[in-house]
Amino acid sequence: MTGVERTQVAIIGAGPAGLLLAHLLAADGIDAVVLEARSRAYVEQRVRAGVCEHPTVELLRSLGLADRLDREGLPHEGLSLRFDRADHRIDLHALTGKTITVYGQQELVKDLIAARLATGAGIEFEAADVALHDLATDSPRVTWTDVDGGRHELRCDAVAGCDGFHGVSRPSIPSDAITLHNHDYPFAWLGVLAKTPPSSHELIYARHARGFALHSMRSPEVTRLYLQVPPDETLDGWSDARIWDELATRLEVDGPFTLREGPVLEKGISPMRGFVAEPMRYGRLFLAGDAAHIVPPTGAKGMNLAMADVYRLAPALVALLRQGRAELADGYSERCLRRVWRAEHFSYFMTTMLHRAPDVDPFLDQLQLSQLRYVTGSTAAATGLAENYVGLPLD
Fold first, then answer.
1. Dihedral over alpha carbons 351, 277, 141, 1 (to 10 degrees)
2. Is 226 a catalytic residue?
3. For position 264, which CATH number holds?
4. Residue 26 needs a FRET pair 20 to 30 A away by CA distance; which of 39, 64, 204, 266 works?
């Protein structure tokens, strides 16, 4: 064993949840060590979510972590639901008084890492063989191997499992102490990142007879686009030319619209699933973000749910570790899960309203169109969508 260290909170994972939690705890004088299995370069470059809800942006601003987001992020006051060969705009700002901001998750991760390192606090990147011990006690431990092969042990008062769906945190909970809810959607997304200016200044969610398509962006020079494909699809048959042709077909509209093509920088296929683990706590281990829940990306909720989790977790840990008060920690899971299930339902609503199920018949086809026409034609229905999309209040 190279060394035994001591801290108050061990944070597993240097994604948005783990990094934001470290900042929230530091603001209240709680020490934390962040362990990340990947390299700094990897976590700063992996492309993930791109939509920041209004409460997420406000939270980052309150911590002084939104300077570059405010300079380079793309505020959006609305979005388009495209069907019947026409755009139907949902005016988010008019309906809610709030906006969303398009800012790549990897850019936010860069900001959070730089801000933490600037304070002199470190992050243990490339931590291998991470294992959690004694979680049911008041003195849990974390062991790992550093990049040079040295073994470490970290003794702490609490562990925050922010290491994603495939991390070590959730599997460290005994199977009889956790319930896992799964829902596999019958389609996947083929996503591409293209070096071309966006074809629209707002997001377009397109429902087409050939399947769903999404036009999004990451910057004024980079566009993010998605196509609905079967869940067992591979990239083998998807040349760049075929992808652009299919996007042009599904995004076609009666009126002025030109799909801007450009070099494809990345492409990949992601399954669509819903997943919730409950409770989100076991002893002194607290789960947050993708370690506890997954939502299909149609509702733009994944990263924002992670931020909402740690917004609740930080004061719970402060009360537990500084004041010996356990009520916030005891209620952490229940409070988070209320928001999680709301986000799961909204994501289900958006996904089923816009995607073409493989077994759809003309009856279900017309029901789907009826739902879209109602949402875009009723102020009350549009307001419900807008409230969920811009983000429900954190409190």
1. -60
2. no
3. 3.30.9.10
4. 39
Q: Residue 236: phi, psi to the nearest 5?
A: -55, -40
Q: Which of 103, 185, 332, 389 is catalytic?
A: 389
- Distance (Å, whole) CA 156 – CA 380: 49
Query: What is the Cα Rg of the chain in Å?
Result: 22
205 catalytic? Reply is: yes
Active site residue 208: no
Clarify whether residues 218 and 363 are in a common domain: yes
pLDDT given for residue 197 in this prediction: 97
**Mean local confidence (pLDDT), 193-216:** 97
Q: For 135-154, what is the mean pLDDT?
A: 96
For this structure, is 297 an active site residue?
yes
Residue 261: DSSP 8-state: P
pLDDT at 1: 44
Mean pLDDT, rounded, of the chain:
96
Q: What are phi and psi of 272, to 5 degrees?
A: -110, 120
Residue with tokens 């990947």: 38
Reduced to 3 states (helix: H, G, I; strand: E, B; else coil), residue 223 is strand
In this structure, the strands spanning 9-12 and 158-161 are: parallel
Does the active-site annotation cover 374?
A: no
Residue in the block written with tokens 């042990």: 153
- Same-domain status, 176 and 192: no
Nearest alpha carbon to residue 307 among 117, 112, 71, 157? 112
Whether 7 and 44 share a structural domain = yes
pLDDT > 70? residue 82: yes
Give the domain range for residue 228: 185-272+359-390
Instruction: Kindly state the average pLDDT of the residues 237-241.
Output: 96
Task: Please determine, for residue 48, whether its predicted confidence score (pLDDT) is greater than 60.
Answer: yes
pLDDT of residue 191: 96
Cβ atoms 110, 46 nearer than 8 A: no
Candidate list 16, 301, 311, 355, residue with the active-site label? 301
